Amino acid sequence: MKTSRFFTLLVSLLLCAGNFGVMRAQATAEDLIDSGSAKIAVGKFDEAIADFSKALGLNPKSTEAFIGRGTAKKAKPDLDGAITDFTQALKLDPKSAKAYSGRALARKAKGDLDGAIADFTSSLTFDQKSIENYFNRGEVKAMKKDFDGAIADYSRIIVLDPKNGYAYFRRSEPKREKGDLDGAINDLTRNIEIRAQQANAYDYDARGWVKGLKKDWPGAMADFSRAIQLDPKYSAPWRNRAGVRNTLKDYAGAIADYTRAIELEPTDSYSYRIRGEAKKALGDTSGAVADLTRANQLDRQRAVAR
Q1: Contact 140, 108 (CB under 8 A)
Q2: What region, left, alpha or beta, does residue 250 occupy, with left being phi > 0 and alpha being psi -120 to 50 degrees?
Q3: What's the farthest any 2 CA atoms get from each other in the chain?
Q4: Which of 300, 296, 244, 305 is closest to 270 using CA atoms?
Q5: Within its chain, how far is the Cα of 286 from the centroid?
Q6: Number of H helices, E strands in the chain
């Protein structure tokens, strides 16, 4: 009787020990996943991959580990390896929105735009309020010149988050490409209104550019000047305002703005070239030759570097 009870107790202890070992293995796999995720955040991608691989050694059916390793591989970038891991995650969990969006990003990076759109669409099927996926799918659609599709995705973000100024900013781009300049300006204006005190030089420079396309020279000048006021070290609005001044035949003003753009971006061959043309218009032949020569030199250096 006592022997039987002792045997039963021994078996129970062994079973408990076995269960504890399984639980401990699971905890270790989770620890490795947490460590791998942290290493991705600090850019240690190889170490992250090693952690996720160890986690998979302990739990080969961990969707989270495959997604984590795929994310680290994409960042290296090992795009084929990333796609393989995300695909394996989807075999384990066909409804994983994160696996679909991860594979979509890897496919986008490889240039497989149709595959990326398909995966972003699948991800949105399982996470219909993912603003990030709408942004990403809209961007890929724009890359394919599906401007209406891109506008629809950015519009969906605005429905989900009406105060998302960046969605208005991004929607302005396909509108501009379609030739809907008024619609683009309206979106850029709405972005500035939403961002208010946080609106930056880039916001005003972008609107100024579209106003320039409409030949609204006073409006473009005002926006470029506001951009310069907000960030005097941002070269684009100096160059763009110079372009407006050049168009209006204010050659002295254009030269001053191009000079500042060149000071901020000394390898900008375009600014040298157009400044040279402005100097030519003012009769400064030697100055024009010097600028045009420098523009040619920079263009040649850029061509060789490619």
Answers
A1: yes
A2: beta
A3: 117
A4: 296
A5: 44
A6: 16, 0
The angle subtended at Cα 226 by Cα 221 and Cα 230, nearest 5°, is 150
Q: At what angle do helices 79-92 and 63-75 cross, to 10 degrees?
A: 170
* The residue to which tokens 């619609």 are assigned: 183
**Tokens 């796999």 sit at which residue?**
29
> What's this model's pTM, rounded to 2 decimal places?
0.84
Q: What is the pLDDT of residues 280-299, one digit of tens each?
A: 999 999 999 999 999 999 99
Spatial CA neighbour of 122 closest among 155, 86, 151, 148? 86
Note if the bond before 77 is cis, omega within 30 degrees.
yes
Structure tokens at 122: 């699948």
Q: Please say whether the beta carbons of 200 and 231 come within 8 A.
A: yes
- Cis peptide leading into 218, omega within 30 of 0? no
End-to-end CA distance of the chain: 87
Q: Which domains does the chain have, with CATH numbers?
A: 20-128 (1.25.40.10), 133-199 (1.25.40.10)
CA-CA-CA-CA torsion for 247, 252, 253, 258, nearest 10 degrees? 90
DSSP characters for 138-178? HHHHHHTT-HHHHHHHHHHHHHH-TT-HHHHHHHHHHHHHH
pLDDT tens per residue across span 263-276:
999 999 999 999 99
